[in-house]
Amino acid sequence: MAKFKKRNLSRGGLKPSAHIYPYFIDSPPYYHVPYSSSIQCGRTLPPTPAYTVSPLSSEVSVKGEALTGSPSSAHFTYRTQHMTIDLGPRIWGSSYPCYGLNGRVEGSIRFSGMPRHVKRVSVTLMARLATSAPQRGVKGKYVSTLMSRTIPVYVPFKTGTSWEDDHHFSIPIPSEINMHDAVSELPPSFSSWDTYLGVGCDLAYFLKVCMLCKRNGISTHESRLIPIMYFPKSQPSQVGLPEEVSYSGDASLEGPESDEDSLKMDAVLPRWPSSVKPDSETSAQFSETISISLPYTTFASGELIPFTIKICSAQPSLSHILCQSTCVTLLKRITVSPSSGKACQTAVTNLSTGSFTTQEAKDGSYVLSGNVRAGKAGKEASWSIPDTVSAEYILRVSVVVPKNLAGHIPNFRHEKVVKLTSDPCGTIERELRATGGVPTPALGLQSALPRDDVGSFANVYIC
What are all long-range contacts of 240-249, with beta carbons under 8 Å and residues at least 24 apart? Predict the structure, then answer.
């Protein structure tokens, strides 16, 4: 093995536990964890990933000197006529400052010119939500402020620092907000627009630096609006896997409120054509023909979502037809409610289609065991602002019978809400230890932000 000098970490921001390997080692050591013994948060995890020379689409390469705050690393710097704003080094390789869960927006401001007319300099962290949804054929756009926090940076004779000094500031990003008398997690930066349906939302974060001056009784403002990105990581929290599945006649199409509901078999309801009016006996017969179960309801993005579908009918030939017509898909649904009391509008995207194996029982029933991919790793996450906007994921089971049997046999459909997190269980704690307490943003969520849309907000505002 090649010899190399031991790096001195005593003066840097990295802790000795954050191992740094020299770039000239030919190859890292081989490792493998057996599938049966890799248990985390009560789940059986797939084998450990293989080493790759370049980071994958959901990974990012972070240089050690960026975390230590080395002067050699490039900084996010913004200027106005009398202010130079420094938001720190470019740690995550993004075009804009990025922050993770429980992160802090930290930086410094250096002033130029004379302070004679300056009354106050403040920094505001703000989140803005813009939604659009057609109402009675008329498109309407609504803009609201989700969160705003302001701190003073310079006040003459009060802040304790002179005009010539670097004025440092630090604003914690709240993990929760209160909207419509309901507390919810602060959502990530997000943008989604369906030009055909006219449904969309834009959730953007900004840092506004404002200098208030007063001369001859007239107040003027010199300000800079800086776009920042907030990508909080999330992970599953349930512990333990169910050992058995029990049947429940609950045919609700709503998502489960707890993991106990996921242990039950949900009935996949029949959907008859509008021209067919089946009697009560026929309806009852088909309402118990197909059922589905999930082991749990929260999954990390990129994971395989396992499912079990049972098709049971008194007629084996009918069970066979329904088995051949079954399809399982994972959908992403953006729901927008422009204002309180108005109807919601939705935009749906198909993320993936499931695959399954079929096992036929002696009584003619079928058991379909399979899985569907929960999108791409690190690029999906559920979030919601009550009565305003939400991004949720739907596991849809649909059975569409051949056209020649339409009217004699109903179609079937069932939708179950599942929660997706950006990362697997244990990721947040492990990365905090590796980075010395610096929250790592979920950079994979950047895929929900069009590049042109992000750049449109990087402007200077002088008023």
Answer: 240/42, 241/42, 241/43, 241/44, 241/295, 241/296, 242/295, 242/296, 245/293, 245/308, 247/291, 249/288
Q: If 0-12 CB within 10 Å is exposed, 13-18 middle and 19+ buried, where does residue 344 land?
A: middle
What is the distance between the alpha carbons of residues 350 and 394, in angstroms, rounded to a whole number?
10
Signed CA dihedral, 234, 172, 191, 333: sign only: positive
How many beta carbons lie within 10 A of that of residue 36, not counting itself?
7
Whether the pTM exceeds 0.90: the reply is: no
Task: Give the whole-angstrom CA distance, residue 200 versus residue 345.
Answer: 9
147 within 8 A of 124, measured Cβ to Cβ: no
Three-state SS string over the chain comes to CCCCCCCCCCCCCCCCCCCCCCCCCCCCCCCCCCHHHCEECCEECCCCCCCCCCCCCCCCCCCHHHHHCCCCCCEEEEECCCEEEEEEECCCCCCCCEECCCCEEEEEEEECCCCCCEEEEEEEEEEEEEEEEEECCEEEEEEEEEEEEEEEEECCCCCCCCCCCCEEEEEECCCEEEECCEEEECCCCEEEEECCCCEEEEEEEEEEEEEEEEECCEEEEEEEEEEEEECCCCCCCCCCCCCCCEECCCCCCCCCCCCCHHHEEEECEEECCCCCCCCHHHHHHHHCCEEEECCCCEEECCCEEEEEEEECCCCHHHHHHHHHCEEEEEEEEEEECCCCCCCCEEEEEEEEECEEEEEECCCCCEEEEEEEECCCCCCCCCEEECCCEEEEEEEEEEECCCHHHECCECEEEEEEEEEEECCCCCHHHHHHHHCCCCCCCCHHHHHHCCHHHHHCCCCEEEC
Instruction: Yes or no: say if 6 and 21 are a contact pair by the CB < 8 Å rule.
Output: no
Residue 262 sits at the vertex; the CA angle it makes with 260 and 265, to the nearest 5 degrees, is 115
User: In this predicted model, what pLDDT tens digit does every residue of 334-372 receive, in sequence order?
Assistant: 888 766 555 677 888 899 999 988 887 777 788 999 999
> Tokens 């921001």 sit at which residue?
13
Q: Which two tokens stand for residue 312?
A: 């049971």
Cα distance from N-terminal residue to C-terminal residue, the chain? 63
- In this predicted structure, the answer to whether residue 254 has a pLDDT above a threshold of 90 is no
pLDDT, tens digit, 9 for 90 and up, residues 49-97: 556 666 665 555 555 545 544 444 589 999 999 999 999 998 888 889 9
